[in-house]
Each structure stands twice: as C-alpha cells, then as structure tokens.
Specification:
about 270 residues; 2-enoyl-CoA Hydratase, Chain A, domain 1; four-stranded mixed beta sheet; about 15% strand; binds coenzyme A
Length: about 270
C-alpha cells in the first residue's frame, strides 16, 4: 500500500509492523498506536522478517526503528498477552523462545540501526532501543523500566546493554525504582545519544540516517563489529570476524573511491564493495 506521502509501505504482523524504504534507509515501524505501540509476539516475528529483508537488500545502508504516531516509540511488551503467554516461569520460557528470533535478528543485525524515539520508550521498548546502535530522542521522549512495578524481570541481554549504556548505578536506579525519566535526564545518564526539539525531530532523524547511509558500508560494518567486540563478554568476542571485516575495507573498491574522492575534492560515491 502507499501512504499519504506516496511511499510504498509493507505490512507485517497484520499491520502491527510496517516497513518502508527510501534513499538507502529502511524504516521499521511499531504500529499499535492504540496501545502506545506495545510489542506483541507477532510483532517480534514481523520485526525479524523486516530485518531479514533489509539485510538482504544491498540498497539499504541504514535502518531506523520508530513508533507510529507521536506519543510512543514502544511502551514495552503487550501486557494484554501476559496472562495467556507469560503467566508463570514455564510460560515465560516459551515466550522467550518465541521472541528469540526477533531479538537475535536485531542484536546481530549487520547494518547500522538508529532508534528514533518519540514519547514512551518503556520496558521491552527500551530494550529494543538499547539493541539499536544509536538512540536519537525527541524532547518529549520518556524512558523507564517498570518491571519492578509489574513483578517481572528482564533477562541478561537487556540488562547488559543497559549497564553498558548508563553504568551499574544508573541501571540499578532505573530497575529498582521503575520511575520514568525525561529526555534530558536520559541524555545525562547516557541512555540516548542526542535529544532534539520535537519540531526538528523528523528532519534530524532523517538527516542522521542519510549521513550514515552515505558513508562507506564496509567501514561501518567493521566499526559495528569492533564496538560489539569491545562490549561483548570476553569469550564471545568475534575477533576473527572483526579482522576479516577490517581486511575487507582495505581491499575494497570503496577505499579506493574514498581516496580518489579526497584527492579530487568531491563527495565519495560508495557502493559497499
Ligand atoms: N501493553 C498493553 N497495553 C498497553 C501498554 C502495554 N505495554 N501500554 C499502554 N497500553 C494501553 C493501555 O492499556 C491503554 O489501553 P485502553 O485505552 O484500552 O485502556 C492504552 O494503551 C493507552 O494507555 P493509557 O495508559 O491510557 O495512556 P497514558 O498516556 O495514560 O499512559 C503509559 C501511558 C505508557 C504510561 C501507560 O499506558 C503504561 O504505564 N503502560 C504500561 C507500560 C509498561 O509497564 N510497560 C512495560 C511492560 S513489560
């Protein structure tokens, strides 16, 4: 289907996930606005399917995750499914298995991912944002981890990402209190990279994605692997993969193009090869 701006938008998870692409940037949209974009099980499957397509498309150089509407990025897991899908520890293990594909797809995604955050970014929604490489927040963004108010707990991966971003003391503050913090406080603690006034947010997100999409894809891939290695548990560092990615840069046509463009004082045209 085409949206109001004439973009070809594809629906996943019965329309609760949307995907569109423009100018080298793939957009995955959490689209359950009547629940502040709470993420249900089928939305995890939809996210994995969208990321598979973006990974396979060489024309996509960067991915933006965003929430539909103006009020939320993602308000966490869909609590409406908790009785049926997460009622006790055994059900939770099943729920974890169901969401694993989507979480693993996002965690291992090869291309740069930006979380563009307006409004509520809570619980599992914050987990999704933390799994992105960059977090751009609008001034109206609100962050929090209400697990202790609900009686549930998050697994290791999300907590590790949280601690890597804000350090253990701020992580404990967010986890123990369950309190919500605004964009300025989130910026102070390192939860987000930048905060942008609401009126400038869409343009800022588009400009950031475009800037990254224009850069050399193999360089960014190597950088992403290096950052992942720097923050991974020592036994899980993919040093061989990183070395291969660095070698691929130095052997690439894009590296030659980068040098030529510099000499000729013109913008480079990278192809990812
Ligand atoms: N799962 C399911 N439904 C959700 C939801 C979630 N995570 N977050 C919001 N909703 C629903 C509300 O139940 C409400 O539905 P209703 O209109 O049928 O009553 C609708 O979204 C609008 O939310 P509402 O609470 O009326 O909006 P608000 O602006 O007053 O508050 C929040 C917004 C996000 C602060 C509040 O909805 C909230 O605390 N949600 C739960 C967040 C959470 O605990 N997430 C972690 C889950 S692990």
């Amino acid at each position: 289907m085409r949206d109001g701006l004439g973009r070809e938008v594809r629906a996943f998870a019965a329309g609760k996930m949307l995907a569109w692409a423009e100018a080298g940037v793939g957009h995955a949209v959490f689209n359950q606005p009547d629940k502040h974009n709470a993420i249900s099980l089928d939305m995890w499957d939809g996210l994995a399917a969208i990321l598979d397509e973006f990974a396979a498309d060489p024309g996509i150089r960067a991915v933006v995750l965003e929430g539909a509407g103006e009020r939320a990025f993602v308000s966490g897991a869909d609590i409406g499914q908790f009785d049926a899908e997460r009622g006790d520890a055994e059900a939770q293990r099943h729920y974890e298995r169901r969401t694993r594909a989507g979480r693993a797809r996002l965690a291992g995604f090869e291309k740069p991912v930006i979380a563009a955050i307006r409004g509520y970014c809570l619980g599992g929604g914050l987990g999704i944002a933390l799994a992105a490489d960059l977090r751009l927040a609008a001034a109206d963004a609100v962050f929090g981890i209400p697990a202790a108010r609900l009686g549930l707990a998050y697994g290791y991966d999300m907590t590790r990402a949280l601690v890597a971003a804000v350090g253990p003391a701020e992580a404990c503050m967010l986890l123990f209190t369950g309190e919500r913090v605004g964009a300025a406080e989130a910026l102070r603690m390192g939860l987000v990279n930048r905060v942008v006034p609401v009126a400038e947010f869409a343009a800022a997100a588009a400009a950031l994605a475009a800037q990254i999409a224009q850069n050399a894809p193999l360089s960014i891939r190597a950088a992403k692997l290096a950052v992942a290695a720097a923050t991974a548990d020592p036994g899980l560092r993919d040093m061989a993969g990183l070395e291969a990615a660095i070698a691929a840069c130095f052997n690439s046509a894009d590296y030659r193009e980068g040098r030529s463009a510099f000499r000729e004082k013109r913008p480079p045209r990278f192809t990812g090869a």
